[in-house]
Amino acid sequence: MGSTKKKKDKQKDFQKTKLKVGKEKAKASNFTDTSFTAKTISLPNQRLVKDKDDIVKRLSLTKHHQSSTRKETLIYIEQHLPDDPSIYKQILNSVCPLCVDTSRSVREALVSLLKECAAKQPGLIELHSNSISLFVHSAMTHINPAIRNDSYKFIDILLEYGDDSFVKNSWIKTIKCFFTLLHWPLNDSKQLSSLPSTLNNDDVKSRLKILESFNRFIKSGIEENMRKKAEVITVHHLTGLYCIPSTSNPFESLKLFTNPLVTTSSTSMQCDDFKSRRETFVDLFLTDFNKNVSNLVKQGGQLSKCGKELQQLVETICD
């Protein structure tokens, strides 16, 4: 009797139940109703704001071997820049070496990130212009032509957001880098650079951008004195000596609060005012500048137009 009952119970698992007309199938014991709808999902215990520690962890990805990862990291940092200014020094130290990155998309993402950092933290680029200019100068003299041709974009950022400090501390070095970038020889050059006799459209466009950036750099250096006089109204001519300095490292020329580098190179010289920048340009670069610009004007086209603008600008220096 007992064995037949066990057999019937086992056979029930393999038998299909016959449903009556109009009667629904019985629901399982673990059935969950999912027919409900909700307009919003509340997550009170989850933070939606990105913490700055998350950005610090991602900074190491700027050295990743894949260019797509480096680009996505820069885009992520740009989209989640914090309001805390203490982390920006660490961000710049990690991303500035990408000025010489071999990927063009990474360099473009870096340009966008630097602009966003400057907009979010005014004065940031000017404060760190010395460290940024090291990588910009490296890009201007890089062996890769694509990196050299994009270096003017970083120069424009420095001129737009930190021109005062950048022009003072890197006047001679930047002009020499522009000469190298434009294939203009200098008298003290051991090996003269040669420029191809024919330039394609891309080379002409990049060369025009570089010349325009060079024009802005010289103009920023020689017109600074007049611009400052127009912006600042003082009661007494010595009032500025008792005001808080508006530039970073105001006592760097006196070797105060800095770690001085012992060097005899002229590129490390500071040109704090209009007069010193004018004198160094006339003494070190004017002769070679006039020769190269004259050759540029003879080429005709847009390059000739930029050359004439440079000539007119330099004439104002010599007057």
Descriptive notes:
This protein is mainly α. It has a domain at 166-187 and 200-242 and 264-319. 57% of the residues lie in helices and 0% in strands. It has 13 helices and no strands. Helix 3 (67-79) packs parallel to helix 5. The termini are far apart. The model has no long low-confidence stretch (mean pLDDT 81). One of its GO terms (biological process) is rRNA processing. It is found in: Nucleus. Residues 1-23 are annotated as: Disordered. It comes from Cyberlindnera jadinii (strain ATCC 18201 / CBS 1600 / BCRC 20928 / JCM 3617 / NBRC 0987 / NRRL Y-1542).
Give the % helix: 55-70%
Kindly report the average pLDDT value: 81
> Helical segment tally?
13
List SSEs in N-to-C order. HHHHHHHHHHHHH
Q: Which regions are unreliable across 5 or more consecutive residues at pLDDT < 50?
A: none
Structural class: mainly alpha
- Strand percentage lies at under 5%
Organism: Cyberlindnera jadinii (strain ATCC 18201 / CBS 1600 / BCRC 20928 / JCM 3617 / NBRC 0987 / NRRL Y-1542)
Main location: nucleus
Pfam family, one: Ipi1_N
Subcellular location: Nucleus
Summarize the structure.
The chain has helices at 2-12, 52-58, 67-79, 88-95, 104-120, 124-127, 129-140, 145-181, 201-222, 224-231, 274-284, 286-299, 301-318.
Task: Describe the structure using short key phrases.
319 residues; elongated; mainly alpha; 57% helix
Topology:
Elements: H1 2-12, H2 52-58, H3 67-79, H4 88-95, H5 104-120, H6 124-127, H7 129-140, H8 145-181, H9 201-222, H10 224-231, H11 274-284, H12 286-299, H13 301-318
Helix pairs in contact: 3-5, 5-8, 7-8, 8-9, 9-13, 12-13
